[in-house]
Sequence to fold (171 residues):
Amino acid sequence: HIVSNYYDVSISDSFANCDVVGESYVGGLVGDLVGNEVLVKNSYSQGTVKGEFRDIGGLVGLIGGHLVNVFDSYSNAVITVNGTVVQEVGGLVGYIEGTSYVSGSYTRSELTVDAVEKISSIGGIIGAWKGEGEESLSISDSSSDGLININTIENTASYVGGIAGMLTGQN
Fold:
């Protein structure tokens, strides 16, 4: 792991017993967490998270940065997403970008995703990750032990996984 001595955005030893409702960038602890170097450590959420569109997670909706570390964190949230087009929903994090390390983290979240037209990038831990150039993703010592329910009227659901929905690296 790359561990920095300096994080410009850091959340440690934090807890949320949540009832959160939003459209996009919705999380049980934080909706949108962006910085150069981002750390989420020993933090968790439980309760309900409800969204309508994208970047929705049991712990964090979106995390972005040059270096992202999520250590020893978890979510037991009940996540419900209802919309026309739904994407990037995760039991722990909806969407991550940048060089990212997820370690010692887990989710027991229950995800229910209902969409009229399309569902994409739904994962037990991470909905979607995107890296560019030399950026990479590592998931270790982490697990998902939740239920993922997908319902779409037009029967178009893609990139759905127990750990991650979609992982995309670009050189």
Notes: The chain has a mean pLDDT of 92. The chain is about 0% helix and 70% strand.
